[in-house]
Amino acid sequence: FKKVKKSLLEGSTLQKFDYFDKKQHGTQDFPVEYYYVDRNHLRYQMAVHWHNEWEILRVIKGEFIITLNDKQFKMLEGDIVLIPGETLHGGEPQDCVYECLVFDLYGIFRNIEMVKPYLRPFYRQTYLPKSFYGAGTSPEIAATVGALMGAFSKGSHCVELETVAGLSRLFSWIQNTGAYEPASPEEVGSGRTDRIKPVLEF
């Protein structure tokens, strides 16, 4: 992969709020949305944006240049990125087919008390997970994300159950393998007030 320092706001007079994606992803009861994107999709070119939800993106074929805040990755077939909520991101597909899963990490698990201690550091973003997973480098991640995407693309009758199971496997793997780093005090302090109420409830 290719990682280059590149701020999405560099040289721009626009503020981050100008890029906020107001679209509702999923429903209140099941705040998850799956997107299969090819060149016929209206949002084939991923404009710079951010949202409160987390996102997983996987390249099915072709090439995708994605920028996450100040980092840029060149993604190829099978590569995966995990994008925390509130991350400014955008991408340039090149003869590419890709899929995205956008999910509200808090909303999915808000009624499952036993998992909250494990997810709270990610939801509060005191833990920042590794973003890029190259094809063939993390078989567990590839299998978990493949099953998650497949539950939606193949129309599973148990998609809610498979989503909860898949995301649980994903975040437990990240914790067990240490595929994260503690956020700096500046990063922890940069969160917006719209996260305060659900954090207190969580």
Key features of this structure:
single chain, 202 residues, alpha+beta, eight-stranded antiparallel β-sheet, two-stranded antiparallel ribbon, 6 helices, 28% helix, globular, disordered N terminus, disordered C terminus
Please give the count of helices.
6
The helicity comes to: 25-40%
Number of strands: 10
Radius of gyration: 16 Å
Beta content: 25-35%
Structural class estimated from helices and strands: alpha+beta
Outline type: globular
* Element order: H for helix, E for strand: EEEEEEEHHEEHHEHH
In oligomeric terms, what are we looking at?
single chain
Please tell me about this protein's structure:
The protein has 202 residues and is an alpha+beta fold. Helices cover 28% and strands 29% of the residues. Strands 1, 2, 3, 4, 5, 6, 7 and 9 form an eight-stranded antiparallel sheet that branches. The chain has a two-stranded antiparallel ribbon with strand order 8-10. β4 and β5 form a beta hairpin. α3 packs antiparallel against α4. The longest helix has 19 residues, at 159-177. The N and C termini lie far apart (36 Å).
In short:
The chain is of the alpha+beta class. The chain has helices at 105-109, 116-123, 139-153, 159-177, 185-188, 196-201, and strands spanning 4-5, 32-37, 46-49, 54-68, 71-75, 80-83, 89-103, 127-129, 132-133, 180-182. A hairpin with a 2-residue loop joins β4 (54-68) and β5.
